[in-house]
């Protein structure tokens, strides 16, 4: 169909529905049953997570980074700090080869992990993060709260993993949402040293020396920084290299949400002693001989791993 045809069809459409712009017509259209089949379903209660797109600024496309001003309220910031305050431990880093958590001079903060949906405030913030990033909440790790005192820092690093072990559950980290829970007197900026257009961000002496070495974001209570560690084609993006500059005056509190490519939640398993099938297809699979053909999944492995179809395989 050429453009002329399309245009006349469109005009015909407009003339046939003279009231289309009228809100009652629109409301009726939106209320129609077929909306139930749309891919994104917003229940009334889900509409307000507090995510406000008008408060988002694009900082850079390489790395892909965005700043949401006032993402958290002061009360939410204080609440997160209070949940973490008495439970801080020395922060660790993932070893490049083994993937194990190890202490390192590279990272000198202290921190702790909250639980997912730990309380209503945490759950609301997690829903807001999902609304902003368009990434499902189940792909996220539990929030990590971090505390940096004078001189403490995190040297530039990548949030994607170099080892295979840490990619097993959920795959690579695709995005990070870094929420600033406190103002910092001086220092504590998030810095991207491999940002290409470094000269496009002039800096005066309110910035620390470390912040001058890249594109930097000043920590401001309530603001949130979103950046992507993978390109849109899912390859790792080295320009996402980032660090936390040493705190020079005051202290810094932040909350981090790492989001993976896939679901990061460990599938809930049935209790060891229970005689159950954990997949609705178990009886059918067992009938076609899968208990013998695929024993590791159906029955269980040699290392004490329990199978998913123990009932249908007549193990109990
Ligand atoms: C891990 O590997 C990356 C990339 O090869 C490197 O830049 C980084 O310094 C390594 N980190 C450590 C702690 O060895
Ligand atoms: C993925 O995208 C990046 C950034 O656009 C590009 O540099 C890279 O060559 C792409 N890689 C593949 C395998 O397409």
Distance between the termini: 65 Å
Under CATH at level 1, the class of the largest domain stands as Mainly Beta
The small-molecule ligands in this entry are:
2-acetamido-2-deoxy-beta-D-glucopyranose
Radius of gyration: 25 Å
Q: What is the multimeric organization of the chains shown?
A: single chain
Proportion of β residues?
15-25%
Second-tier CATH architecture of the largest domain: Sandwich
Record the strand order, biggest sheet.
1-2-13-9-16-7-6-3
Helicity level, as a percent range?
10-25%
Layout: helices, strands, pairs:
Layout: H1 3-16, H2 23-31, H3 44-47, E1 56-61, E2 64-68, H4 74-84, E3 89-90, E4 93-94, E5 101-102, E6 110-113, H5 120-133, E7 144-148, E8 154-157, E9 173-180, E10 186-187, E11 190-192, E12 215-217, E13 224-228, E14 242-244, E15 247-249, E16 252-260, H6 282-287, H7 290-293, H8 295-298
Antiparallel strand pairs: 1-2, 2-13, 3-6, 4-5, 6-7, 7-16, 8-14, 9-13, 9-16, 10-15, 11-12, 11-14
The structure holds 2-acetamido-2-deoxy-beta-D-glucopyranose (2 copies).
One 2-acetamido-2-deoxy-beta-D-glucopyranose (NAG) is lined by residues 96, 162.
Describe it.
Helix content is 21%, strand content 21%. The chain is of the alpha+beta class. It has two domains: 56-260, Jelly Rolls, CATH 2.60.120.620; 281-313, no CATH class. A hairpin with a 2-residue loop joins strand 1 and strand 2. The longest helix is centred in the first third of the chain and has 14 residues, at 3-16. Mean pLDDT is 86; it is low at 13-23 and 32-44. It binds 2-acetamido-2-deoxy-beta-D-glucopyranose (2 copies). One 2-acetamido-2-deoxy-beta-D-glucopyranose binds next to loops.
